[in-house]
Write a structure and sequence with these properties.
By secondary structure, the protein is of the alpha+beta class. Helix content is 31%, strand content 13%. It contains six helices and five strands, in the order ββαβββααααα. A five-stranded mixed β-sheet has the order 2-1-5-3-4, with helices on one face. The termini are far apart. The model is unreliable at 155-181 (pLDDT under 50).
Amino acid sequence: MQLELELNGQRRTFEAAKSDVLLDVLRRNGYTGPKRGCDTGACGMCTVQIDGEPAMSCVTPAAKVAGSTVETIEGLGSQDDLHPLQQAFVDNSALQCGFCIPGMIMRSKALLESNPDPTETEVREALADNLCRCTGYKKIVEAVLDAADRMDGEPTVAADGGESRCEEFPSSCSREEGRSQ
């Protein structure tokens, strides 16, 4: 079957079997951000956004997303221009093996779109469906809270309490801050 959808802002058509899940279609076509973890929707490593909502692509039938808008981590930023959420994960050392991070970031993005100023408890609750085997989640939660500040236009402060790095590293700041300093 032909699967037509909007993927990362572009209209795309993919070949898909009726039995395919979205994760299979994405990975077969070069979108390797969503990871195969459990194949049961229990680990969150395959999280993408479908019509603005986080979804486990490993249990989402490909046919169900026909005509939908799908966003993967590949649609957020580039190596030279990271999304503020991606940059916050880097700046807060919230990356270890990196396997769970695309799903964590996509779920965090959905959280920050619906709740731009979450509490630590709200971040932890939002990420409860995403497992990480490397961390105690502390740095991941700190990164999401930092990203909330960055995306809200508040001044960026280094995670170590130092000065903002907007002049030296403009990509680590929101677009507005980078221009104003």
